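Your task
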Amino acid sequence: MGLPVILDCDPGHDDAFAIMLAAAHPAIDLLAITTVAGNQTLAKTTLNARRVCTAAGIKGVPIAAGRDRALHGIAPVAAGIHGESGLDGPDFGEPVVPLDPRGALALTRDTLLAHPVPVTLVPTGPLTNVAALLLAHPELAPRIERIVLMGGSTERGNTTPAAEFNMFCDPEAADIVFSSGLPVTMVGLNASHQALATTEVVARFAALGTPLARICTDLLTFFADRYHQVFGFPVPPLHDPLTVAHLIAPQVVRTVPAAVAVELAGLHTRGATVVDLHGVTGRPPNADVAVEVDADAFWDLILDAVRALGSGPPH
């Protein structure tokens, strides 16, 4: 079996590709999917996880709903980027993949306890669920191999000038994760902005000709339009699946060790990740931080996953 993983997400166009890559690649053993409020409300992100799994034929992976707000308040949603459904663009229809009744915290706890080896957590939305788990069950820390997250940046933000969306939604949760003492890998905007869904990339999806590939094409087309409208990007980045790609092939996303702090109180900088790439603070590194992406190899992994899900038996 592959590397055991729990994917914690807020689908979200890029989360959808993270789900597909994690389910399709033999290097990953996707044990569970948990959802959190972020790109849209919890009800919508949970429905979207079920929609993606239904469309991709992903069966046997439990899906559970987690926190519907930040640790200390209600988080914003990103309807301006992901649309009112959180996955605007394709026509998904009604999902047939069920929802696990346990909830994200219980599902994660049960999965960590049941698995014979420690499990890697891959959060691609706000870190509320992961922080809630660490607060409620500190005894489970030895059951966590590492945390590979999408969020933050070594440079600037995308929700405020300083803060990336996932960090901005719940800075206190992010601070708990980075201060946990667990191995953390941060894949931030500085890396994901190197993984651009160019017109050539979208054409490769369209050329696959499967129903799932058409959904992917529609997702990327909508995402491109919104990124152009909101940020002026000629083509959009695809953030979240870089976490899974790094686990599959570490050379696709190169990292360096660094001390990372999350700003909690700054008037203009709340939610910013302060990344000490040059060791000027003297603080020891508490994370591996993504700095460079092999975009061609990344897109090959994504295309192969969509091809596999579109042509093989349900996973």
